[in-house]
Amino acid sequence: MLQRLHANKVELLAVLDHPDIPLHTNGSENDIRCQVTKRKISGGTRSDVGRDCRDAFLGLAKTCAKLGIVFWDYLGARLAISGQPLLPSLPDLIRCRGQPA
């Protein structure tokens, strides 16, 4: 085991040069957990199109949650439902979130 650690020393210590590298994959696993739970409960979808739609909506809901936006408000804004708050598109919101203050 020590030989393997020594052989991978450069990769293992990359976090010291790049502190933005996460030390675990919990964030990625959490992102797909709701999709796995939904698939187990519903037993999957009847078609590939259904699976793609489910994945797209779950992905949108997860992205909205990360950005602090109510998913239904975002969906209402995209579908131009009257009375819904005006929200920019997700790419614009993500770009704004990445800008320094």
Biggest sheet, open or closed, and with what strands and sense?
A: none
Shape: flat
Secondary structural class: mainly alpha
User: Percent of residues in helical segments?
Assistant: 55-70%
How many extended strands?
0
The arrangement of helices and strands along the chain is HHHHHHH
End-to-end CA span: 45 Å
Strand composition percent: under 5%
Q: What integer is the average pLDDT?
A: 80
Oligomeric form of this entry?
Answer: single chain
Radius of gyration: 20 Å
Q: How many helices does DSSP assign?
A: 7
Poorly predicted runs: none
Provide a descriptive summary of the structure in words:
- By secondary structure, the protein is mainly α.
- The chain is 67% helix and 0% strand.
- It has seven helices and no strands.
- The N and C termini lie far apart (45 Å).
- The mean pLDDT is 80.
Note the main attributes of this structure:
flat, 101 residues, mainly alpha, 7 helices
Indicate the topology.
Blueprint: H1 2-7, H2 9-12, H3 14-17, H4 26-42, H5 48-67, H6 71-78, H7 90-98
Short structural summary:
Helices cover 67% and strands 0% of the residues. It has 101 residues and is an all-alpha fold. The longest helix is centred in the middle third of the chain and has 20 residues, at 48-67.
